[in-house]
Amino acid sequence: MDGRIFRRSGVARALVGFLLVAVLVAVGSAQPSSRAATAAAGPRPPNIVLILSDDQRWDTLGWMPNVERLLVAHGVTFTNAFVPNSMCCPSRVAILTSQYSHTSGVWANDWPNGGYLAFHGANSTIATWLQSAGYTTALIGKYLNQYRAAAFHGVVPPGWNRWVSFAADNGKHFNYWMTFNGQLRHYGDQVSDFSTDVLANQAVDFIRQTKGPLFLYFAPYAPHTPYDAPASDSCGPLGLYHSESWGEQDVSDKPPYVANSPWGPAQVAETRNIREGQCALTTGVDRSVGEIVSALQATNRLQNTMIVYMSDNGYMWGEHRLFHKSKPYDEAIRIPMVIRYDPMISAPRVDSHMVLNLDVAPTFAALGGAAAPGAEGRSLLPLLEGQQVPWRDTFLLEHSYGWDDGPNHAPDFCGLRTTNWMYTMYMGGAEELYDLRTDPAEMNNVAGLPSAQAQRDRMRAEVFRRCQPLPPRFHKT
Predict the structure, then answer these.
(1) CB 190 within 8 A of CB 49
(2) Which of 52, 88, 209, 406 has the smallest set of CB atoms within 10 Å of its CB?
(3) DSSP 129
């Protein structure tokens, strides 16, 4: 069925009216810094490229030689980059809008507490902001979970000049549908159909064909499961993984969903399979990075382009006996983030500021001379310039579980991650508190200790103040 095209249905307008609702009206405060304003106001507005991998941990960039050579060696690597909600759809909404889940209403991947149908902010995203500022925009890859019905009716969200998105199953490596500005095309199971390469070719075409400033949102499905990369992309055996919290033996102080998690040979094998599968799939993503950078160079754009490489969330490899994401632990919420922008960054460096996926849209808006209405993040431009500016040391953790959260899913939770502490309160009453200064692996839950009561109470009160509204199921407990 490869190459079959279906034109958009006549009901598309009705679906747009039903699914895409109100414009966000709050006015954000993202403003370009001095050098960024000069760049944005000059004769050649800067180009912007976001490369967003799927389910990639922060500690796997060593698998990616192109990322290391072309981005890390020319940019700023943020070693404390996080997502407040470590699931695909909530994180991607945060990237598009710079809003926490309690603001956007997208808590999970599926209806009624998440997914495409719960997202009512499509009229005000980084795409609409930059398009209004004169940018030609493209989303190429994964959009939001449960977009399928809208895609099959030809719905293309506002703000995108070119739209090449997975239409069904929210993404696959083989045997998938994609929508090209409302027209559907099916790809099969040949090596040439590998979705990461198909999407990379589309991204390169967009760069080569576009005149003037561009914004490219490139979002391959890799290294998300299933781990069916082309055989040529295999990493081979990686050896036994180990960390302090991997297969944690005593989980009696953890919430029930952790304490009830099994651990044995099957889980050890699962760790190995996940790591080898993710490594193989990042090979294709790394190849895409090389092709995108080459296209920017060939079109004389590279020296005037901000390139951001990041993931939508982390992934657990058996830490605390857990797999998947959607948890408050560091392995799930910490992400890789590297930014290359040659006009601001003269030499590679590492930055330890606590940055979030919420900061991406305000950064792009500031660079492109656009407003960022409703943004809850901050522009990263001052950090890229090396300015000494006041910065956050705390952010909110939040999540509501959905059908695809995997086994041993976490109940709905809200919490706080600070420089020194992690606190989480769950639906049903369980709490966790870790002193990260002495326990960075989050092994010893001190929430019930009298010596930590004052710290727990302060953080609990702060969660109630910040997490408004609380996750959807809290009102039932």
Answers:
(1) no
(2) 209
(3) H
Nearest one of 363, 317, 389, 295 to 58, comparing CA atoms: 317
From the list 219, 354, 286, the residue with the least C-alpha distance to 68 is 286
435's enclosing H/E stretch is strand 431-435
Reference 138, options 201, 56, 71, 55; nearest CA is 201
Cα separation of 287 and 197, whole Å?
8
Tell me what pLDDT residue 44 has.
84
224-237 pLDDT, tens digit each? 999 999 999 988 78
pLDDT by residue (tens digit) across 24-79? 333 333 444 444 444 444 458 999 999 999 999 999 999 999 999 999 999 999 99
Specify the pLDDT at position 43.
Answer: 58
Q: Check whether 148 has a pLDDT greater than 90.
A: yes
CA distance 401 to 414: 12
Bridge partners of 215? 48, 137
Measured on CA atoms in the order 329, 333, 335, 341, is the torsion positive or negative? negative
3-state secondary structure of 165: strand
Residue with tokens 């045997």: 175
Residues β-bridged to residue 414: 398, 425
Dihedral over Cα of 310, 340, 416, 476: its sign: negative
Cα angle at 375 between 373 and 378, to 5 degrees?
Answer: 130
Cα three-residue angle 305-307-313, rounded to 5 degrees: 160
Residue 88 contacts residue 256 (beta carbons within 8 Å): no
Q: Kindly give the residue spans of alpha helices, DSSP state H, lying in 299-395.
A: 330-333, 360-368, 381-384
* Mean pLDDT for the stretch of residues 121-146: 97
Give the residue numbers annotated as catalytic, written as ranges.
Answer: 88
- b/e burial code for range 126-163 (CB count within 10 A of at least 16 → b): bbbbbbebebbbbbbbbbbbbbbebbbbbbbbebbbbb
pTM for the whole structure: 0.91
